[in-house]
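Blinded run. Sample ID left blank on purpose so nobody reads anything into the name before looking at the predicted structure. Input follows.
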Amino acid sequence: MAEQKDAPYIVVERQSSGVSTFLWGALLGAGLALLFAPRSGKETRREIGEGIRKLRNSAEDTMHKMQKAVTGTIEELRDQVNERMEAARQAMEAGREAALRSRAELERRVQEARAAQRSGRPFAAEIIDEEIYTADEEPETREI
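Blinded prediction complete.
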């Protein structure tokens, strides 16, 4: 029991930030100002109505400006995406055309090599090897 009395304990206190108190005070002050205003109720209502209309118009203007900005940004992004897609399509088409040209060239070389082999030319295998390797690589030599 003595151990429990000597143990430290934590006290949690919650404090209000004061925002709610401020808002209540502002509302109360606005109400009192309306009650003790030197103008008549009709004048006060008209003034409040004008203030609300100005606030609404200002909010609508701001909303329209934001809509235009967002619409412009979306259109710019759409244009960029379309441009990149078109560039990708062109690159794919160029790659496809290059592959077709390479295939046609390879088929032509194979046909030439087969024709050379059928005609009995002794260096047909070396012709194939030389055409396959690039200029900086040495082809393997085979004896036929």
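Unblinding after everyone has recorded impressions. Residues 58 and 120 are 93 Å apart (CA to CA).
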